[in-house]
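Bit of a strange request maybe. I'm writing a small parser for structure token strings and I need a real example to test against, not something I typed by hand. Could someone generate the tokens for this chain?
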Amino acid sequence: MYCHGYERSTGSTVIRLGLRLAVSSSREAVSRLVVVAVAVGIGVGLLLTVIAAVNAVGVQNDRYAWLDTGTPAASGSAASGGAAAGGATAAAGRAPSWLLFSTDLFRGQIIYRADVAATGPASPVPPGLPRDPGPGQYYISPALAALARSAPADELAGRYPGRQAGLIGQAGLPSPDSLVIVVGRSAAQLSHLPGAAAATRLNTTPPSGCGNACQIRGGLGPSGIDFILSAVGLALLLPVLIFIGTATRLSAARREQRFAAMRLVGATPGQVSVIAAIEAAAAAAAGVAIGFGLFFVLRIPLAAIPFTGQSFFPAELSLSLPDILVVALGVPAASAVAARLALRRVNISPLGVTRRVTPAPLRARRVLPLLAGLAYLGFFVVRGEPASPAAQVLVFVPAFALIMTGLVIAGPWLTMAGARILARRASRPGALIAARRLADDPRAAFRAVSGLVLALFIFTVAATLLATQDTKQYWTADGGAANNVLVDQFSNISVAGNGHQLAVGSAPAPSAAVLTRLRQVSGVQGIIEFRADPGLTLTSPQFQGYPAAVVSCAQLASAPGLGRCPAGAAAAKAPASVSDLGGNMTGVTWAAADVSVRRLDSLALASLEVATNGSQPAIEQARTILENAYPTGTGSPPPPETIGESSQVSNSADNAYQQLADVVILTSLTVAGCTLATGVAGGIADRKRPFSLLRLTGARLGLLRRVVVLESAVPLLAVAAVAIGIGFGAAAMYATLEMHLSLVAPGAAYFVLTAAGLVLALALIAATFPLLRRITGPETARSE
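Reply from user aminoacidic:
Good idea to test on real output. This should exercise your parser:
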């Protein structure tokens, strides 16, 4: 009993001693604790931000679910037609709501519109609304309300008749910037509109969980959400964890010396281990507290960053209880374990710190994980792409994770190889000293630049894939004069194999009142009616396979960007919607069509195109008139839009991915810079005794500066060259496998930014020179 009590007393004494050494043993100890805590705090703050951003992406994506009510994704929740609606009502035992979803545009921004007609008090209510709006009422998002107030009424507000009943709450909006409106209609009116559906409940399946069945009115599908989570996990978490690990190792050499001194005065290995763990955990715990404070302070400004093209509600940047526990307990625990593992030389012998010998050279087998990752990705390039999004994630995530981990593992061996080359070519003392130190401990030398090496790999892959993706964007905004034409398309055109299929719309010809209002808009230059004629075909090889329409040559003359008629022709054959061609048709002469005026007027309207002078007021006023005359809804063609807007909308997902890539690149480079600065500064602090002794023996400060630069530049340049080459190779395989495209080299901006990043890294190293001067004076050697 006495022995157990003695052991408990001794253990508590050691713990108190560890805490005292960490916080109050000397000014140096306190300074070390503060530096480590601040560095760890920055890393933890970044880690929490990444985790919260991942959570916010999921919450934001879930809020698009109700906008897919009435599509196949919401099977059983909605049905078109009165009989089907009655069946849904009987099955659910509640009154349905008639819903008509559509999208709108205003100056390139997408507006989501839901027309709603409740049939009873128990009808489903869209999220964010206190009740269904009645006829003549609408609920509107704050961003759209502000936009409607700032724009002239005939450009935007005139599309939404009635009065505002209130604002849509956060539950119904994916983002604070979302433009959403819920318009109340009568059931008798709404039930007869094409595309309207009766629903007894609103869809709750988010775009990420409905496969290919969703209409996807915004949000990210399974492949998109998996891509984001994978990109964030691989491109941000690993560099942040490396930074935290580097921060916890600050002043590791100094701690080893103090612990060796404790061993010499009689401390046991277990006692030293406990003290080391307590000291490291105390600094890490303080850093965790700083990190949580930093995260909550910066959460609001961080929410404004369009991580996926849209900002977040600050409350969405939240942490779950498991997230908090993993970070709050995991970082101090990992720091304690790392401190324990770092004491193996002290535990072997108290003199193990000072009686150092050159360790065994690293083996070339350290490159095997890197080669394995490339081989794994290459195997599927030969075998073929997995069919499902989940299977694709199981291919790409492990492959890129193995490649990035392989770079970290192979980095010290590549550093050692670079040190040997430097030693063979060295002709000055600084280079010889740097080569000797690099060869002695390549792991520590590479640790400082590992974050930047990963950032360069990420930058290379992202920039190359974005350059390749740009070639896939089949619509271009360079439509010339056609960009000034507003197209209201009534025919759904879908591609099947190498051909096209046309579902002819049944829209009536515009009334005289509509034509008059359009002509009264300042900036409208012509109105062109394309009439669908399934009996005609386009014979030109350039347009063969596109469904044909007939257009009056008199009308076509008012819009040169849509092509021209042959001389003397009264009508011409052209594609049903020129906007599907996505380009300027100024130089195209369409074939003449033998169609009488009487027959032309009797054909269904395939599209109505309004030629303008390109001014935004003219386009928006014409769009408002067309939308009021021809409302569109679920399953219908897109809203009236110009060719430039068609390009922007069709490439919106790619633009969101590019926005994500920019955020990932900037964040990884920032983290890499912090890791480099922390690693270099910590390395100088750990070596202040040998550096100060060198100065006492006559070495100039300039010599020590060259040593510091070479010790960081050699591993940085050696491994960065490999990382960039591996990045090009991995991107090429991904482009072939997933994008089905040949690799396209990034533009000059990539190479300029890469060179600028390396120069900035060297500048960060040079920024530590004042610290080198301060800690290598003669007084340092005397105090040691």
